[in-house]
Write a structure and sequence with these properties.
Blueprint (H helix, E strand, L loop, with lengths): L9 E5 L17 E5 L8 H12 L5 E5 L9 H9 L37 H30 L6 H18 L3 H28 L4 H5 L1 H25 L12 E2 L2 E2 L3 H27 L7 H25 L1 H4 L5 H27 L1 E2 L5 E2 L5 H14 L1
Parallel strand pairs: 1-2, 2-3
Antiparallel strand pairs: 4-5, 6-7
Length: 388
């Protein structure tokens, strides 16, 4: 009885030593291609790239790579000798974006090493988006301070402000590893000082209807700040303690010389939560007050643009060209965080336009809701001035 079977064409490559073989490989289709050896922790970045190009040149639906015959860890005498003569096991080139860019990282994620399929401009472009977001937020802080002092109203809810300050401190002192990162967070913190001053100065009048909050605004803000500091520090420490935390494979993500530590996804979750609190709090504050004290269209525009450029804009660009490490943008929790923030930020200018139609401006610049007793507002303002 005749036996039936499936003919299979196989190609086996061994010990290619990182040499380009595109012109020597067979042109006809192969069923299975197998590369044996060479790809180990001893390999250089260029060797990986050449081997990948060799494999890409093979017309085969199934390609297998078996790492290995240069792994000495199972040969105890040889391995001990290697340890005695040890140099860092990770090639210094792996800490850089590319082998020809001999420079340290300049911004968060700029030390990432994208896969060969990603364009060379990906990391620089994401850095530009992040930097643009930083600039927009700096402008937002300046506008917040001016509007707050002019209208005698807090520019930002207490809880989001405390969380935001804590997040910036943790990232400035612990997570950042590059000069541009540190400069960005240092500027954020420096520009936050006037915002903090304006908030504490105008809090007694803004919270006149809640005397307990008005008298203890500074203490409440301090409690939120300490809680946010502990929470962000613990989360960042846990995230960076082990490789491959988060969604997908993190090869190419480097932090302080440690492979597979993704500060981009870390910032996505921690900054995303802080931003959601900011967006929800700002909209709720506007609705509760019924006036635009401490708020303006320019503040909203800078805040909205800074958020979109620095968070979803950067991460969705990375996901489009590097989905293996950035699939977290489609996680259900991501959709909730980004969707909630986006909905509140989009609704904000329409609510602002509504309250501006009915609000009133007092002689000293204070803005009040249209249904507020002006005499009561004047007395509250007078008491506040006398106290100061």
């Amino acid at each position: 009885m005749a036996r039936s079977g499936v003919k299979t064409r196989m190609l086996i490559l061994s010990d290619t030593h990182g040499l380009p073989l595109e012109d020597k490989l067979p042109k006809q289709p192969i069923d299975v291609a197998i590369h044996c050896g060479d790809l180990t922790e001893e390999s250089k970045l260029d060797e990986f790239r050449v081997t990948l190009r060799n494999l890409q040149a093979i017309d085969a639906p199934l390609k297998l790579v078996i790492a290995g015959n240069h792994d000495f860890t199972l040969d105890t005498p040889v391995f001990r000798k290697i340890l005695e003569e040890a140099t860092p096991s990770i090639d210094e080139q792996l800490m850089r974006k590319d082998s020809h860019h001999a420079r340290p990282p300049t911004a968060m994620g700029s030390s990432d090493i994208p896969p060969p399929s990603a364009p060379t401009w990906l990391v620089p472009a994401s850095t530009v988006l992040l930097g643009s977001g930083i600039v927009c937020w700096l402008a937002c802080y300046v506008l917040m301070t001016r509007r707050s002092l002019a209208t005698h109203a807090t520019p930002i809810p207490l809880v989001p402000l405390g969380i935001n300050l804590a997040w910036e401190v943790v990232y400035a002192l612990y997570v950042t590893e590059a000069p541009l990162e540190l400069a960005g967070f240092a500027m954020w913190l420096a520009f936050d000082v006037p915002v903090l001053y304006a908030t504490l100065k105008t809090a007694p009048r803004s919270f006149a209807s809640a005397p307990l909050v008005a008298r203890n605004a500074g203490k409440l803000l301090a409690v939120v700040f300490v809680f946010g500091l502990a929470s962000n520090a613990l989360f960042a420490w846990w995230w960076l303690a082990e490789p491959h935390r988060g969604h997908g494979l993190k090869w190419g993500k480097v932090w302080n010389g440690l492979e597979a530590r993704d500060t981009t996804e870390l910032a996505w979750w921690s900054a995303g939560a802080a931003q959601m609190a900011m967006s929800v709090g700002a909209l709720a504050m506007l609705i509760q007050r019924g006036h635009s004290g401490g708020q303006s269209y320019a503040i909203w525009l800078c805040r909205f643009a800074g958020t979109q450029l620095g968070l979803p804009g950067t991460c969705f660009l990375l996901w489009w060209y590097w989905p293996e490490a950035h699939g977290f943008v489609w996680h259900p929790l991501s959709i909730i965080i980004v969707g909630t923030s986006m909905a509140c930020d989009v609704a904000y200018p329409f609510v602002l336009a509504h309250v501006r139609k009915t609000e009133r401006v007092l002689p000293d610049g204070t803005v009040v809701a249209g249904d507020v007793d002006v005499a009561v507002a004047d007395r509250n303002g007078a008491r506040h001035k006398k106290r100061n």
